[in-house]
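Following up on my earlier thread - several people asked me to post the actual chain instead of describing it. Fair enough. Here it is, all 413 residues.
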Amino acid sequence: MPEASEIRLLVPDRPAQPVDEVRRVAAGYWGLEGRFDALRAERDQNFLVETADASRFVFKITNKDELEDVVDFQLGALLHIATQDPELPVPRVVPGLDGQVYRAVRFANGDEHIVFALSYLPGQLVSAAGQDIQPALRRRLGEFIARIDLALRGYFHPAAFQRRAWNFETCAELEPFVSHIESGEDREAVGQVFERMRDVVVPKIRSLRHQVIHHDAHGGNLLLDPDDASVPTGVIDFGDLLYGTLAAEVAIACDGMTRGSHSVAAACELIAGFDAALPLEEDEIDLVFDLVCARNAMSATIAATRRALAPEQRAHIGTPEDLVEKLRALYCVGRKESSRRLRNACRFPVYCPASAREALSDDAEAELVAARHALMGRKATHFYARPMHFERARGPWLYSTDGHRYLDCYNNV
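Reply from S.P.:
Thanks for posting it. Predicted structure:
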């Protein structure tokens, strides 16, 4: 098994610098003085700073293993958004007294960290709204996430290619760490997801359109108006920003804001809102189910690895057991049914293979025939040993699930 350190920040050693020392750094380089309250974070050390005039800021001490060019990439994205959509409520970069937006500081314990300051966004986290998320709000959240990605279009940076634990396109690097999941059945379920990602999904992802995306727009990072919880008012945490596909963006949002038996309906509402502002393509929609499954498999693997290798750290993403249960719930709905409903939400026709290589399997076709017999009886016969199965048409052409198109010359008048 590879070392966990080979995947950057897989098991992050969160900073724990003394608050008095953090105060001196913030005052000396940014002129920020006042009350410092610790904020929860996955891999960094964050403080809410409230100054004497009631202004509020976030002061961040990044993980010592974070790269300077990655910080430059993230802050550059916020600066880019400020020029493309000035009204979009995201944290604003606060320059230091010398005009620099970040700097490397060596603390008394010898560790060097990059530090920077951002404006503070008030609001209630969507995750705190519990079961009060209504369909209309999910649509608005989808539209809001699309607006973030629209503002990021055209932005690029050499550090946009991120080989980190949460990247779908490099998730195969996590596969050896599945062994940290305790249950054999859970390991098998997660391993099957990684196998499909490696063999089927990631090659398809690489053919999709890409851009810099937020890549972490879930309920723990999206804000609502505290006086009107039906109105999105901001997004925080650009720490997982990367160059990826829009399918990844919506999959992460769907996974992070849907729960229980109505999760597909909730995902449809969110994706419909996203699609209304930033139209999705068929191939993107068809990968959302796989990416939501992968998100849970990756999260379960990361959580198990952190629990095994750093049990003293506070859990940030839930237990591997709960995450695998979410994965099983997704499989109860199924890829076909989920994709059908997501396609319908974005006004696409039912999926139809584009080539013989993608044709429905003989087993899948046999299941349909068996279902027809069960509903209509065996005397409702077909003309063919293997019935023709058409899912769409255009002009005189009929498109079949065997991946071929057929000229319609049949006359039943």
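The longest helix spans residues 184-205. That should answer part of your original question.
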